[in-house]
Amino acid sequence: MSLLELRGIKKTYLLGNSVFGKRKAVEANKGISLTLEEGVCLGLVGESGSGKSTLGKIILGLEKPDQGEVWFLGKSLYCLKAKELKELRRNLQVVFQDCYSAVNPRLTIGEIIAEPIRNYERLTSVQEKKKVQELLEIVGLCQEDIHKYPYQLSGGQLQRINIARAIALKPKLIILDEAVSSLDVLVQVQILNLLAQLKEEFQLSYLFISHDLQAVNYIADRLAVMYKGEVIEWLEDMEQLERLKHPVSKKLLSSVLPTYPGIL
Ligand SMILES: Nc1ncnc2c1ncn2[C@@H]1O[C@H](COP(=O)(O)OP(=O)(O)OP(=O)(O)O)[C@@H](O)[C@H]1O
Ligand SMILES: [Mg+2]
Predict the structure, then answer these.
(1) Which ligand is nearest to the CA of 176?
(2) Domain ABC transporter, which positions (predicted)?
(3) How many domains does the chain have?
């Protein structure tokens, strides 16, 4: 059984106002089927507007597909009752690109990381503080950062907070949607290294969404290339990058510059 299985996901957005004429249809996902096995990082790459985030949102239940099924841990997500869905959702977390808007600026780092824990576990304040401090250390920050506010942290540090929150419940799958894209290259490498280390330590699976094949190549085990709402190419092994045939994949490949140490 795959950890995640998508069967024929379709999503169309209608743009414009029907009162003033015909509404334009944007087919963001045109029948996507794919699987993700446990412990694997699947890179989902494609140019801007190819439908990657839409697919991520559908997996997270933030958007409803027009057609198709999302199977996660053997259950069809859109057929579950609220209680079952909540239980399953603890195994499915997300880190978005914009680390600042992902957090409530009025909360302390401690409160931000504790949010999912409070939703699912009944801990005393002492137990909760200990857990948050452990998480801060796991993501390479100091225990004292627990009292800080988001504006007191750099983008890289704040993305570590978002990662700490995502792993707090020891989920099975984390969707990383352009999670390193807005960071400086060196910080990107540090965060990618952290993600790779956490994946091993906690047997995590990732759906690593990016327009940047270079970052994907750094962390992914498998690759799906999206173009205009479809998966146009699939690689079982990132060692086989040169086998990519589609002109769109080749274009993404040609943009892979030797910026990161030790790649290509
Ligand atoms: N809420 C929405 N309403 C209308 N159209 C949308 C909506 N969300 C996405 N779209 C459209 O669907 C298409 C796919 O968008 P999506 O955000 O999934 O692409 P993407 O591959 O994640 O792009 P990027 O690399 O820029 O993040 C685009 O044409 C986009 O304009
Ligand atoms: Mg996107």
Answers:
(1) 2
(2) 4-253
(3) 1
With the CA atoms of 26, 42, 193 and 256 taken in that order, what torsion angle do they form, in degrees rounded to the nearest 10? -60
- Identity of residue 73: L
- Does residue 223 lie within any of the structural domains? yes
What is the whole-number distance in angstroms between the Cα of residue 179 and the centre of ligand 2? 10
| pLDDT less than 50: residues of the chain | 259-264
Domain around 84? 1-91+201-264
Find the CATH number of the domain harbouring 31. Answer: 3.40.50.300
- Does residue 210 line the site of ligand 1, with CB under 6 A? no
Q: Is ligand 1 within 6 A of the CB of residue 156? A: no
Residue 49 near ligand 1, beta carbon < 6 Å: yes
Asked if the structure places residue 4 within a domain, the reply is: yes
pLDDT in tens, 133-184: 999 999 999 999 999 999 999 999 999 999 999 999 999 999 999 999 999 9
